Every structure is written in structure tokens, then in C-alpha cells.
């Protein structure tokens, strides 16, 4: 596929940077500080531009994770990470006009970001909501991979996956209602998994799936984003 290696390169940088970002997410660090340090990490990997309104890291902390807003309006806050908290991070590196796009949700327990496997689920506890949100995101991506085919339209996938979100007991928080977009060379050229988009997926090369969700009765938002593409009609993660 054309440019596959270029996209693999920049997305691999986003993934490596995200692992480093996890280590700096600790109790007391502010949203603004996470953004600054995350962008410095990306630059250390050779990233010189950020394609999403010049935002390298789109970060929300605590209950601000339910906020969905355009990068045009985003300003990182002074809100600090608590002892037991949640942080969403969405990276937008660009190298030689090729984009990376990668988001994850971090859970902070006893002051440090942990792997979800370290969470001990306790009924009605805050960590219970955290753990279930992380697992819901993973399940959505598994179901996306199992469902999507090249001949489907973006609208078909949007309608199906929104039903899945609801069946899991969650709501779609995205301010525009979409669930992902194509990877382009200009952000204005993106098309979305949204109602009314009758383009077929086979017509594009790379696209994201990035459900931003919260439990219907919850107080926190969750994100997980990967770039996908078809190779010999098989859906793959970049």
C-alpha cells in the first residue's frame, strides 16, 4: 500500500511516546504540564509538526475527560492529577506530511499511572468505573475489527458501532457525534464515521476508530484510538 511505511513510522513514534508519557503522569502534575512534557517527548523522537491545530497532545484530567471539543478551542487547564484519577491523552504527530493519531486513557492509582491489569475491581468503587471503561473501549475496538468490511459505508459502521456503545451501557461523547475519520494530508479533507456519509471504506487508505465514551451513569470519559487499514480485505491496525 502506498505510503504504508511512512505511516507506520510516525504511528510507531506516537506509540513509543505514549509509553513515556505514562511515566510522567503522576499525582500533582497539571493538564498543562502533561501537554508540555508530551510534546517535548514527541520532539525528542523527531516530530517537528503537530497536524491537529498545532496541538501535539490533547489532554484531559479527571471529570474533564467527558469534555469533547475541537482543537480550535482547546486550552489545557491547570487541573492537577489526583491520587486516584483518570487522564486521556490524544497524540497528533506529523512527519513529512504523514500523520500519526493515537489516543489512550490512563488510570492513576495511589499517585501513579498503572496498567489496567493492576487495578483491583471493588464493587461501587471509583476504580471499578475506571476498569470497566478501559475494558469497554477495548471491546469496542475488537467488535469494530470483527464487523468492518471494505464494501461498507462510513454511515453503516457509524450506526452499528453506536448501537454497540449503547448496548454496553455507554454514550458517545464526541461533540460532532462521529467515531473516527480518514487520515489525510490536510485536516479539512477528513471524512468521518458519521450519519449521512455514504462513501465506502474501500475508497480510502487509512482511517481511525476513536470512540470517546462514558458510562450512562458515570462521571468520567474514556478514549482509545488506533489507525486502521485494509490489506487484502483484512482489517489491520497501523
Description:
With 238 residues, the chain is an alpha+beta fold. The protein has one domain (4-237): Creatine Amidinohydrolase (Alpha-Beta Complex). The chain has 4 helices and 13 strands. The protein has helices at residues 4-24, 31-44, 126-147, 154-167, and strands at 49-50, 57-61, 85-91, 93-95, 98-99, 102-109, 112-114, 170-172, 207-209, 212-215, 222-223, 226-231, 234-237. A 4-stranded antiparallel beta sheet has the order 2-3-6-7, with helices on both faces. A hairpin with a 2-residue loop joins strand 6 (102-109) and strand 7 (112-114). Helix 1 (4-24) crosses helix 2 (31-44) and helix 3 (126-147) runs antiparallel to helix 4. The longest helix is centred in the middle third of the chain and has 22 residues, at 126-147. It is globular.
Question: Descriptors for this entry?
Answer:
single chain; 238 residues; alpha+beta; Creatine Amidinohydrolase; 4-stranded antiparallel β-sheet; 4 helices; 30% helix
Topology, element by element:
Blueprint: H1 4-24, H2 31-44, E1 49-50, E2 57-61, E3 85-91, E4 93-95, E5 98-99, E6 102-109, E7 112-114, H3 126-147, H4 154-167, E8 170-172, E9 207-209, E10 212-215, E11 222-223, E12 226-231, E13 234-237
Antiparallel strand pairs: 1-4, 2-3, 3-6, 4-5, 6-7, 8-10, 9-12, 10-11, 12-13
Helix pairs in contact: 1-2, 3-4
Number of helices: 4
Query: Spans with pLDDT under 50 lasting ≥5 residues?
Result: none
Percentage beta strand:
15-25%
What is the CATH C-level name?
Alpha Beta
Amino acid at each position: 500500500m502506498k505510503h504504508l511505511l511512512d505511516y507506520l513510522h510516525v504511528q510507531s513514534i506516537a506509540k513509543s511516546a505514549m509509553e513515556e508519557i505514562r511515566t510522567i503522569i503522576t499525582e500533582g502534575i497539571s493538564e498543562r504540564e502533561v501537554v508540555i512534557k508530551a510534546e517535548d517527548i514527541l520532539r525528542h523522537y523527531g516530530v517537528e509538526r503537530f497536524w491537529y491545530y498545532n496541538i501535539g497532545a490533547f489532554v484531559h484530567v479527571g471529570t474533564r475527560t467527558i469534555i469533547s471539543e475541537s482543537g480550535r478551542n482547546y486550552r489545557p487547564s491547570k487541573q492537577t492529577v489526583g491520587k486516584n484519577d483518570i487522564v486521556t491523552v490524544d497524540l497528533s504527530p506529523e512527519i513529512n506530511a504523514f500523520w500519526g493519531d493515537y489516543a489512550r486513557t490512563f488510570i492513576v492509582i495511589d499517585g501513579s499511572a498503572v496498567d489496567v491489569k493492576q487495578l483491583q475491581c471493588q464493587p461501587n468503587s471509583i476504580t471499578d468505573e475506571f476498569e470497566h471503561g478501559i475494558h469497554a473501549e477495548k471491546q469496542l475496538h475488537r467488535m469494530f475489527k470483527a464487523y468492518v468490511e471494505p464494501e461498507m459505508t462510513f454511515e453503516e459502521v457509524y450506526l452499528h458501532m453506536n448501537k454497540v456503545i449503547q448496548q454496553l451501557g455507554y454514550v458517545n461523547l464526541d461533540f460532532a457525534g462521529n467515531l473516527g475519520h480518514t487520515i489525510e494530508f490536510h485536516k479539512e479533507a477528513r471524512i468521518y464515521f458519521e450519519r449521512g456519509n455514504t462513501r465506502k471504506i474501500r475508497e480510502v487508505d487509512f482511517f481511525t476508530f476513536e470512540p470517546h465514551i462514558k458510562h450512562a451513569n458515570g462521571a468520567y470519559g474514556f478514549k482509545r484510538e488506533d489507525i486502521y487499514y485494509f490489506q487484502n480485505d483484512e482489517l489491520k491496525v497501523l
